[in-house]
Amino acid sequence: MTAPATANAVEHVAAGEVLAFPAQEPARAARDSRPLRLITCGSVDDGKSTLIGRLLWDTKAVKEDQAATLQRDSNGKQNDLGLPDFALLLDGLQAEREQGITIDVAYRYFSTDKRSFIVADTPGHEQYTRNMATGASTADLAVLLVDARVGLLEQTRRHATIATLMGIKQFVLAVNKIDLTDYDRARFEEINHEFRELALSLGVRQVTAIPVSALKGENVVYDGRASMPWYDGPTLIEVLELATTRSAQTVGFRLPVQRVSRPGESFRGYQGTVAGGSVKPGDSVVILPSGMVANVTKIVTFDLVRNAAVAGDAITLVLDRQVDVSRGDMIVAIDSQPLTGLAFDAQLVALQPEGIQPGKRYWLKSGSRRQRVQIQPASQLDLKTGKWNHAEQLPMNAIGKVHLAFDEQAIFDTYEQNRFTGAFILIDPDTNNTVAGGMITAKRSALGGIHTEDARVILSLPADLADQLMATELFAGRREEAEIRRVSAGKAVEIIDDIDG
Amino acid sequence: MPHIHPETELHNPQSAKPPLDPHLKALENEAIHIFREVAAEFERPVMLYSIGKDSSVLLHLARKAFYPGRVPFPLLHVNTGWKFAEMIAFRNEIVERYDLDLIEHINPRGAAENVTPFSHGSALYTDIMKTEALRQALDAGQFDAAFGGARRDEEASRAKERIYSFRTPDHRWDPRNQRPELWNVYNGMIRKGESVRAFPLSNWTEVDIWRYIQAEEIPIVPLYFAEKRPIVERDGMMILAEDPRLELLPGETKREEVIRFRTLGCFPLTGAIRSSATTLDDIISELETATVSERQGRAIDRDQSGSMEKKKREGYF
Ligand SMILES: Nc1nc2c(ncn2[C@@H]2O[C@H](COP(=O)(O)OP(=O)(O)OP(=O)(O)O)[C@@H](O)[C@H]2O)c(=O)[nH]1
Ligand SMILES: [Mg+2]
Questions:
Q1: Fewer CB within 10 Å, N or C, chain B?
Q2: Which residues line ligand 1 (CB under 6 A)?
Q3: Which distant-in-sequence residues (6+ apart) come within 8 Å of B4 by Cβ?
Q4: How many CB atoms are located within 10 Å of the residue A475 CB?
Q5: Are A380 and A326 in contact (CB under 8 A)?
Q6: Are residues B228 and B166 in the same domain?
């Protein structure tokens, strides 16, 4: 079944099209860098699990005994093409198999000659949006699927929005089931165009659109030229091989303290994972929230005493003086400190049926710090129009902007600056369940202060320039704070004259 | 060190080892982070120690996570009485060498009723001697968190499991209703009686495990390396024929073969593979070209797809 396609893949490489990396010994080359983390997302039944199943199949990640199990489990559910039901490689829960849908995210691992991948196959069903958010929070890239016959749905928009909020900047738009449209190029272009508009409004710039048949394996690992001579772009795997992992954060050193190690009288070390920047012996640091200052004397690990540690490293830090440090504190660079305060702004996704209630006291956990917080919803995103509407509470699956009010000092970076120190979860104290995932957007200057006393500017711009400005990430992030009216040039002059008196 | 393979002698922490490659380093960092988080958030953690390769890696990571301190929780070995003899010898040596606290538990009911894989069949035996035994041991110790070495690449229902996997007071897993788990922010809030299974190796693959064992020179049970050993063939599996309790059935004969094990458990339920891999390099290259998955050798996993999920829902690890 795959033999002719193999020949194609070889041809591809020989043509030099995808040789962005020096030819290396396969198994080793795959380990030379961090794996790319990706998710599949999109609406119900668009073919996400089938696509990943096909990807695993065609990269030979499925072993013989697993293939035999798949053939057996596919029995009776075979499609018209007589191919196995590749989604069964992912949908491992009994309830999923019975209902033919994905309920929870599945993590799978595979590699090609060029790199290794961690893929999270997420559910399309709206009821399980929380499980999609779980997968999206750690991903570098999102493969957004659209059924070519159906086009973009509200759920497609929801997933694209959540992925963007969570900081994913690279998208593949997989226009799937293209075989069922008779490989209709116009249809592909139409969906591609529609998605570009959505991407623009979300501030996403890196999009590769690919017409695929997940089931038949066209433009997944092997190209689909035989059926789609009109498409000469990359296959999915080629895009994945060239994608970049999220870069280490650029802000200063951050060490959320997980525990204090005191094995004996003579040793006291602070254990945690570096959440940003780097550190070396001799550096001056501040302990937050206390504000005490100290110098780093040693970075201890099991293997050796190290002379530096960078973001991602799990370390034990020794300081030069007796200071009061406990779990939940953050040790940070003295010259580049995070935001501290009692009030912050954030965006969040409500993940449970109870939604997010105004005024209720939740637990907020960020890094190793857990504290009480009150949530005041401000607005909710309308997925159809892309507008932020005023909201008093947030129902399940809503994407909202909220104000956070703390009893004790909170410590954050903005999510845009640091994906670890800017992220948090909310825990309902009544159920202990995780009810929201959130991202810090800003610190608020005064508790309860709303934007009323902020200075405002009225601009009159040519429409095309305004459109470009509004397409920027910066603008998209604060969209609901802006009021936009489209008027004729004459009317604008009239209004501004009116203001100037 | 009679029980430890020469290739995997304990290393001197001061010795110059080449740095880990970024892939393994990232996996190691993640695992250490999870160990520390659980140790800090829970009152009575315990580490399930099954003596296999994954447990060996898990233990090594625990030692790294809490260095220069001791591992701050006990190890729990749920014994069935049917483990390979070499496993038990290895366990005892490791516990002594690393100054660990070991709790060994054998289901007293099973022992009293003489439950064996031969008399009761693999399914019932596993139920009583492993699942029920584990529940007994966790209840007895009132543990609120248990580390396990499970990996998501082992099996389709494991691929769905969170790193903090929530369990009800009667140890049940509800796969349809798992807590969201975003970024590396783990929710460890539970009520009395509830518990969490924590899986620091979730994102590791079988090859990662072996490459890490090699890079870190971690001791493992010698049964993983090929050697000429006595075997008997039963139900399509090659079973080690060393233990005097293994009675040959009519038509069965004992013979010698060069074999090794890809996973270790109870010897009557664990199939060997024909292999000439005597070094870690051999094992890794054998794996990279392997055409079958590691679970092929385990009798208890072969009943049907979905069998693991069922066991897990009932409290099996
Ligand atoms: N003809 C055709 N059918 C496909 C293709 N991709 C998927 N399908 C079929 O579409 C159906 C749904 O596929 P899944 O992979 O389960 O969809 P999903 O997006 O994972 O669904 P959820 O996870 O429940 O949201 C299955 O019957 C697949 O066989 C394709 O490219 N062509
Ligand atoms: Mg699916």
A1: N
A2: A 44-50, 79, 87, 101-102, 123-125, 176-177, 179-180, 213-215
A3: B10, B90, B93, B219, B222
A4: 15
A5: no
A6: no
Inter-chain CB pairs, A–B, below 8 Å: 176
Confirm whether B12 is domain-assigned.
Answer: no
B120 and B51 fall within a common domain: yes
Asked if residues A153 and A124 have their Cβ atoms less than 8 Å apart, the reply is: no
| Chain A residue numbers touching B63 (CB-CB < 8 A) | 302
**Residue B199 CB partners (closer than 8 Å, separation 6+):** B34, B147, B148, B149, B150, B151, B161, B163, B165
pTM: 0.86
Closest CA to A248 of A62, A94, A412, A420: A420
Q: Using the beta-carbon criterion (under 8 Å), do B160 and A104 form an inter-chain contact?
A: yes
Range of the domain at A344: 339-443
Q: How close is the nearest chain A Cα to the Cα of B106, in Å?
A: 31
Give the number of domains in chain B.
2
Specify whether the CB–CB gap between B66 and B35 falls below 8 A: yes
The answer to whether residue B73 sits within a structural domain is yes
Residue B10 lies in a domain: no
Of A103, A108, A366, the CB nearest to B159: A108
B203 and B252, same domain (yes or no): no
pLDDT digits (tens, 9 = 90+) for A175-194: 999 999 999 999 999 999 99
Total tally of structural domains belonging to chain A:
4
Which range of residues forms the domain containing residue B119? 21-212+308-313
- Look at residue A195 and tell me if it is in a domain: yes
**What ipTM score was computed for the predicted complex, to two decimals?**
0.88
